[in-house]
Fold each of these.
Amino acid sequence: MPVSPLIVNRRETVERKTILFICVHNSARSQIAEGLVNALYGDRFLASSGGTVATRVHPGAIQAMAEIGIDISGHHSKSIDVFEGQRFDHVVMVCDDKQSDCPFFPGGKDYIHHAFDDPAACTGTDEEVLACFRRCRDEVHAWIEETLVRKILELAVDKFLFRFPAGLYYSEAGIWVRFEGLRARIGLSDFTQQRNGDVAFAEPKEEGTQVRLGDEVAVVETIKVNLSIPSPVAGKVVEVNGDLLTAPELVNQDPYGMGWLAVLEVEDGEAARGALKTVAEYLALAKVQAEAEVLR
């Protein structure tokens, strides 16, 4: 029975966009893309993948994805023939430079061709080959985020303009959360960093620190105020942004990118998402707070 692209949850009913990723062997690039979309953005997209012929899912792809907490070991390689008669919102061809190398699927509303180097073509030691799969994974992830996911909502209040990427979740304290498999990357929202002033010091908790929801996960000092940052999720700190030690201004300059604070290994992803706000919910809250501050 085919999976319906209609999701119903406690907040809203969302019609998910369907995506078919295509490469020649449906072994690496398209499998990685399918796994990333369904694991990270499954609330908005339903991804499938196929190729000219069914082969196997490359072990390097499985390992590279497992490193970021996404399990595609249950995937199997498919010919696009299995999708005959189906319609997709996006058909994305990820084959190498010549678009003619990719099989054509006639059931797309929108066609995109973006070439990624085939990691299965890499040679060398096991570690060198795995490095190719990691690079492919990261490049595909960045492209998906930029092309299919990232939509920036803006809030203008008085002379101020605040930006809110739609692909993130937000806490009431103004901390953004990007779920990456079993992990959550966090930072200060554009609204939070602007309202508190230029950052002079930022120090997340050490790697290995276990925090509960609401526990202090970082300290941020600005020219206006010292902030104790409450963790928007429960989990263990597994990575911190060391660049902030010498360049704390990154929090102001690039709050959703290079200015991130920490990465946590999440204990319960579903519960974590349920406790956070969507971009629309947080934008509404920020609007009320910003307008109240302007009226002071």
Amino acid sequence: MLPPLKNEEVLRGRYKIRERIGQGGMGAIYLADDMRLKGRQCALKEVEYDRALPENVREEAREQFLREATVLARLDHPNLPKVSDFFSIGPRDYLVMDYIPGKDLRTLLLEARRNKRFLPEKDVLNWAEQIANALSFLHSQEPPIVHRDIKPSNIKLMPHGLIKLVDFGLVKILAPEEVTITIIQGQGTALYTPLEQYGGSDAHTDIRSDIYSFGATLYHLLTNEPPADARKRFLSPESLIPLREINPSLSPRTEKAVLWAMSMHPDERPHSVAEFKQALLGHRDTPTLPVSPLRVMRNLPPSPSIAEYLAKPTEAVLAWSAAVLFLLSLLATLIR
């Protein structure tokens, strides 16, 4: 394991390290100043490979990193950080992204728990809508992109309310006939990881794996309690406590949608983020409800009197004509 980068160290003559702001299984994340674009701060995601792996495996992993970094650099979405550069220095690879200020949702969750309150459902659903938009964008790429590590600490709330889904460290490009090197990419975080993402193969990982992690993340945000992980649920299905048993103020619709997303088998989950979003949020705008006949009658103006009706020339002619026809039919009946 190589020593961490030092503060003030400059990479590629451009990125001046300020401090380390995160540490993951594959390497650190650093805050850096972009010396070429004055005033711009960026986040450097470091990827360091296990030296115990065979050299050919490490080389294949690095080639995979370059392919995926190239794809990520083309992405442009308001709820995703922009990847602006990538490079290698010795045995390490680096991904350069926008630095996202603000608190991550794990921090907000822990603050709420310390204060013995729940995060407002309305706020969480607003964040969920933005996360869903980001995931739909990733999944709609050709080939689709699966994030594979959705969790509260990887979602940041910017000061003006915009959500950013960060940390592409475990991203998987679903290229046909291409197997992701799981040893390199890691497994995600156990609490939010679906069962199919465990083990040494990603053959069964697809966009529905992100949906599970998304649902597990919402479960944690809405209840202040971490969900039972997939392995525990496999052995003990009743270990996942329904959300409203923990937070009774939640709507039944929210609980039902989240539990659907967290179904153990991928085939039992929503088949797309759009389907999950519809189940969770429905139509955010209040629909225009049909007005009942009773309400229509109540809102009608009062009926005019007979005198008012006959005062109008057209109505008067029609009324007298109807009266004459009625009298003629009555006389005809009497004569018979």
Amino acid sequence: MKNSLLQILLFCCISYSTFAQWQQSAGTAGLNMQSLLTNGIYNLAGGKTGAYLSTDSAANYSLSNTGNDNAGPTRGFTKDNNLIYTCTSQGAFRSSDNGATWVSKSVGLTNLLGGGILKVGSKLFYVGPTGVFISTDQGDNWSASGLSTTDVRCITAIHDTLFVGTNGAGIYKSIDWGANWIQINNGLGNSTNFRAIESKGNTLFAGGPIGTGVYRSTDFGANWTLLAGGLASGSYRGFASNTQLIVAGSFGGGVFYSTDNGNNWTTINTGLTDLTIFDLELNDNYIIAATNTQGVFRFALSNLNLTSGFSDSDVNDAISIFPNPTTNQISVKADDKLIGTAYTIYDHIGKSVFSGIIINENTSIEMGNLPGGIYMLCVGDNMKQISKIIKQ
């Protein structure tokens, strides 16, 4: 009986050890991978040899590069309801069949080399050595959208505010779709090179250069803080996030995750045979990592014992603002889940202009003394509910 019990315990330990580690995705061994995207059941990976597709939660990938760049790396993906886009060494490409085939879409790009691509609402953005480009027709045509003399390496957005990381000039933001850009480097010290930037709710995370680490901003980029809490110093190239966690990939240090918005981090590298991470992604069941020389790996989210809280959909359904636009006062209609939680209003440069508490289901906020413009109302735990207010 005693021997049987020991055998059962040993089996459980071995099984958990085998399960609680990274698994290399078949079809990617030995490959350079630089970008990832999940679109429902479709998981895409891109790298030096083009685009690859998995339809089994990143367990197996196969080359899916017909029509896409075959001369250089696929560096980024984005998507909308019907289409998937890549940024590559040869410009932008678009797929209407979940990556089975691709069509070049680079008319108007003055430099084809891409650093990042992002879809925000009906607008598509492409960044590279000659700045930012915008398309309003799903990539059919592109036009310059600022920073034309700046090498832009990455892009993200909070609501309709854009943020970009650059090679040599730090971080910029725009509240008018790139017509104007504001440099937002307070707290970054001498760090000027940023190759990864991520928005999680209203929190920004930016991957700094060698010798730094991950910077965080909770005020729309007005101020940045270099994070510690178990996060190794180094260069960071990839992020992924959902409502429960943020995951960061370092250049040589592997993967770290945080469940408290970046205050504390835990390393998860068991099974990774390449600790140089170019990108990260999340699907329903796995963290997915793109590595420099050993392809794609996946790590089961069930290993992390995540607890659920407010989801984005829960919070979005829990609040509404009227009138909006407004000339003086707004009323915030909140679900009883949010009563007693804090709110903050930020102006267009990320400065806090007013804060208070949601006191009941209809909380009035006076804005008559504020100048006209665009403001952000952030409500709830970690201020993760974001609503735009237009003050006339």
Amino acid sequence: MSARPRLGREPIRKRAKMATAAGVRPWMCAGGGAHNKPKREDCVRSIRIHLGLAAACAGAIAIAALQPATAQERKSLRWTTSQVGSYGYTIAASMAKIVEQALGGEYTVTVQPYQSPTVAMKAVMNGEGEIAYTADIGMTQFQERVGAFKDFKPAKPEIVHTWYAYPMESLMATSAKHADKFKCWKDFSGKPVFYTQAGFQNWLNWQRIYKALGYDFKHLQIDLKANADALEAGTIVGSATYTTAGRSLAAYWKETEIRMDIRVVNPCPDEIAKLKAAGLAVAEVEAKNAFTKDVGPAKLLGVPILFGYNARIDMPEEVVYKMVKAFYDKRDELVKVDPGFEPMAKDFVGMQVAGINANPEIAVHPGLARFLKEHKAWNDKWKIATGSS
């Protein structure tokens, strides 16, 4: 009968040291105890098991450590918009996924709400974002350095024409119980009205409207969520509302309509004539397409503005081109997200042209210029943005 081979003491000690380093203690060996000395074979088996677990944990930690690094390698693309509850914020949030897919996962898109598009525009040009929510009237004020942009000096390159998404129609509404006091827009002149948040593009549009009509613009600032309460209490006699493409309402106006009865007041014929003489358009909106309840006239009249999301000059051409092309390719899908995209879906290229023509002195981003040239819509009178634009 052959003798059973003895286990060498040195390998046991070596494994024990390794086990200790891995967090295994002598008392962890099977059968260990003060009066029950474990067999060397059992101890070796226990050490091997714990070393295997330690190695597996170390591997898992290493893999987990690699994952954040991969996420950190993705570049940031920050969209600055108007505040939460506004149409601009809601739409930007829904488009983030489309942009990320179009850019092949190279960028992480985040939506950053600001008090108004005016503040959002300044934030981008001061380095707090890459793409700003704006409109044709806001771009005009920036180009002319008037209003909120007086003496404004960007810390970063300026924003340029990049992508125009939908028109909005500025309308005027009041409480149904006080509607008999308001027949024309002149009846709101000099009285406390909430013309949307100060700095909003619709707020700027109403200033433009009142200037053309010669009326007194008396704005009373309130929180968006207080719109219905302020109308009911008479704190404000009117509240400017707006539709997107003659259909969609902002979230806070949907809530207002649920909570109270309202009436939309149209401009009178003489006011329409003055607006058109000043170069402003007057658009018709089917009330049933925008509101769920009766708001008075079947056809609502408002002054439209064109909204978009414009990037700084230093945004890479390829990034903007892929983004614009993705919106063009998925324009029908965007309509399913929100009906406000219908005009863009029907004439995507034409809307970009209209946005540029509203402010032809402002340069066009190379990415948009490339897209328009591919679609035979480039106008040589326009200029392509460069670092010195």
